[in-house]
Design brief:
Elements (H helix, E strand, L loop, with lengths): L1 E5 L2 E2 L4 H15 L3 E6 L1 E2 L8 E4 L7 H18 L4 E4 L8 E4 L4 H8 L2 H4 L2 H14 L6 E4 L2 H11 L6 E3 L14 H12 L6 E6 L8 H14 L5 E6 L5 H9 L6 E5 L4 H7 L2 E4 L8 H9 L3 E4 L5 H7 L2 E4 L5 H10 L3 H17 L5 H16 L6
Parallel strand pairs: 1-3, 1-6, 2-4, 3-5, 6-7, 7-8, 8-9, 10-11, 10-13, 11-12, 13-14, 14-15
Helix pairs in contact: 1-15, 2-5, 7-10, 8-13, 11-14
Length: about 375
């Protein structure tokens, strides 16, 4: 089949983009012709995949989105495909690969009435409704049960259109041979001392994933346990200025290190002592599974779709909703204990060995083939 994939922006480090890369690679390996439409493409091209850059320039994300839709629809009318798979919610999709939580739910919880009357909100709410409205035809691939529940609450989408994928990370996230040597090497490279407690934060959207919460927890750790040398490594592409200011205001500017987007997150996990992921919203949280596979203890919020894996693995501490900064501070202090971290590490590695954490992209490719064959590849209205 000829398949078209739609997303606004591709960079090699975001979870959405990594899912796209692995899914397209799986489908291309099965002999399908894959075409990707995007406004921005950062990083290397995907082998055997056609990339069509959409000239959708405008002030305001909703206007860029509108121009993206218009351009892509016209291009598909001239050069049709057998199925259209979107990684952002928008009209005209056969299949939506839902890496995001429900936009309407987030808006009601986190935004005020003025925002909900804005043109931006009206546009993206309409895009989401085009996918999930009960009378629509778009099939939806979901990453977690909590994500599905949010959409059902707001849209009452027919259950037969909602397909829950298994968890999945790349096979190369498993703890490699000579992990101890690689841990020592990455810590030396980063200038981390042997006994220094190293917290790791990995995300491409710093605020929604709770970086301000993690910075505050580090400040509390340093205040409560001044004898414990500690730092926070931040890996990911996003604007960092406000968080750097927060760290300086809390007098821990030297302790928060921004590493930018990284290709070596696996090595960072081997070098760190604790993953801190106090997300405000997180449809899944692939980084949690990567931490389990690497044997890295986790402190995360129950807002994460994959939080149940951390609980089942007994690999760290989950923070209940509503969020409490005090609870996060106590959880990070608990993880000073090296014996406790070692127990979490062994439990995580055992869980990763006994649980299939790598089947998501194969299952998604199976569903795409089945669903498009069933409906004849007709583009949803």
């Amino acid at each position: 089949m000829r398949l078209g994939f739609l997303l606004f922006q591709y960079s090699p480090h975001g979870g959405l983009q990594r899912d796209l890369r692995r899914l397209v690679a799986e489908l291309a390996q099965r002999g399908h012709q894959c075409r990707v439409y995007c406004i921005v493409w950062q990083g290397e091209a995907l082998e055997g995949v056609e990339i069509r850059r959409v000239p959708a320039t405008a002030i305001g994300t909703h206007r860029r989105s509108q121009r993206f839709h218009t351009w892509v629809r016209a291009d598909l009318a001239r050069d049709a495909v057998d199925g259209v798979i979107g990684f952002n919610a928008m009209p005209g999709l056969d299949i939506y690969y839902a890496t995001a939580s429900c936009y309407q739910d987030e808006t009601l919880r986190e935004r005020g009435p003025l925002y909900r009357r804005s043109a931006r909100h009206r546009h993206f709410a309409a895009c989401e409704a085009a996918v999930f409205a009960p009378g629509g035809a778009t099939q939806v691939l979901l990453l977690s049960a909590s994500q599905r529940d949010g959409y059902l609450q707001h849209y009452n989408t027919p259950p037969q259109r909602m397909h829950l994928l298994p968890a999945g990370v790349a096979l190369d996230t498993r703890t490699p041979p000579h992990a101890a040597e690689r841990r020592k090497a990455i810590r030396n490279k980063l200038g981390v001392e042997t006994q220094e407690l190293t917290l790791l934060f990995v995300a491409s959207r710093f605020f929604s994933k709770g970086l301000d919460r993690a910075v505050t927890a580090l400040a509390h750790l340093r205040s409560a346990q001044p004898s414990v040398k500690s730092r926070l490594l931040v890996a990911g592409q996003d604007k960092s200025r406000r968080f750097q200011r927060l760290a300086r205001r809390m007098d821990i500017g030297d302790g928060v290190v921004f590493l930018g987007g990284r290709e070596d997150v696996g090595d960072l996990m081997l070098g760190a002592d604790l993953l801190v992921h106090p997300a405000r919203t997180e449809a899944a949280g692939t980084v949690l599974l990567e931490a389990l596979a690497a044997g890295l203890p986790v402190v995360a919020t129950e807002a994460c779709g994959y939080a149940q894996h951390v609980k089942a693995a007994r690999a760290g501490i989950l923070l209940p909703e509503p969020f409490s900064q005090e609870q996060l501070n106590r959880a990070v202090l608990r993880c000073i204990d090296g014996v406790y971290r070692a127990e979490c590490r062994e439990s995580a590695l055992l869980y990763a060995r006994l649980t299939d954490l790598h089947g998501k992209h194969g299952a998604a490719a199976d569903l795409i083939e089945q669903l498009l064959s069933r409906q004849g590849g007709a583009v949803a209205g």
